[in-house]
């Protein structure tokens, strides 16, 4: 029986990838290069500083000091937060609110397990904060996915055994993290990229609690 469901945020509950892309692109442009939306796919689920390293690599930019990199990431985050501060509940992905509510109605605990340090801002803008019993985000973990820390902390906060938790993730690193933590996984996206997940669906609008009992 399932004790808890732990949800990744970006790509599962809401799609903030387009805002991350706009803000990173603006930063890249100030540094004199550009990158594609296709390249941006590689940044999903990747922490802010690790994303910056990848982007600088694409632009062939070397030799920046840690201080300069921190300033760049901070600038990007300012542009990004300007955009997410304008988000509304209309941007919740199809079925997400309904599925989380159905978990709660069935006495299944719910948590967010996200790499984003902006998790609470986003949840508040979407008016979803009260639907989660715990929020573990980029501010509360030291080791990024695929390390299982974020999901293990989520399970602990919910008082659930890992083997009785289901993790919903759109990024391969997140699926790997959940497996490493001993949890069951539902991939949100395509079966090609999320091959290790126990099941893969296109979105939370396609998930039912009955489905979960058989994985
Ligand atoms: P921030 P998730 C991740 O969220 C995003 O997918 C990734 O693109 C982003 O770089 C990362 O959060 C950090 O976000 O700059 O807001 O701290 O998919 O783990 O919910
Ligand atoms: Mg994600």
From TrEMBL:
Binds 2 magnesium ions per subunit. The keyword Phosphoprotein applies. Its EC number is 5.4.2.6. Mg(2+) binds at residues 8, 10, 169-170. Keywords: Carbohydrate metabolism, Isomerase, Magnesium, Metal-binding, Phosphoprotein. The active site is at 8 (proton donor/acceptor), 10 (proton donor/acceptor). One of its GO terms (biological process) is carbohydrate metabolic process. NCBIfam families: bPGM (TIGR01990), HAD-SF-IA-v3 (TIGR01509), PGMB-YQAB-SF (TIGR02009). Belongs to the HAD-like hydrolase superfamily. CbbY/CbbZ/Gph/YieH family. This is Beta-phosphoglucomutase. It comes from Mucilaginibacter pallidiroseus.
């Amino acid at each position: 029986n399932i004790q808890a469901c732990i949800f990744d945020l970006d790509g599962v509950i809401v799609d903030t990838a387009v805002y991350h892309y706009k803000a990173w692109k603006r930063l890249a442009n100030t540094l004199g290069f550009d990158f594609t939306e296709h390249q941006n796919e590689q940044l999903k689920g990747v922490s802010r500083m690790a994303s910056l390293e990848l982007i600088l690599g694409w632009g062939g930019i070397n030799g920046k000091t840690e201080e300069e990199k921190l300033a760049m990431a901070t600038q990007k985050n300012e542009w990004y937060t300007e955009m997410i501060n304008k988000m509304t509940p209309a941007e919740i992905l199809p079925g997400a609110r309904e599925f989380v509510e159905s978990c709660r109605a069935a006495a299944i605990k719910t948590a967010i397990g996200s790499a984003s340090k902006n998790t609470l801002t986003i949840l508040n803008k979407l008016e979803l904060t009260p639907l989660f019993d715990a929020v573990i985000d980029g501010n509360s973990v030291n080791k990024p996915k695929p390390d299982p820390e974020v999901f293990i902390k989520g399970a602990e906060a919910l008082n659930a055994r890992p083997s009785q938790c289901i993790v919903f993730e759109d990024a391969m690193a997140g699926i790997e993290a959940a497996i490493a933590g001993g949890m069951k996984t539902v991939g949100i996206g395509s079966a090609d990229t999320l091959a290790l997940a126990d099941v893969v669906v296109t979105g939370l609008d396609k998930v039912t609690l009955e489905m979960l009992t058989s994985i």
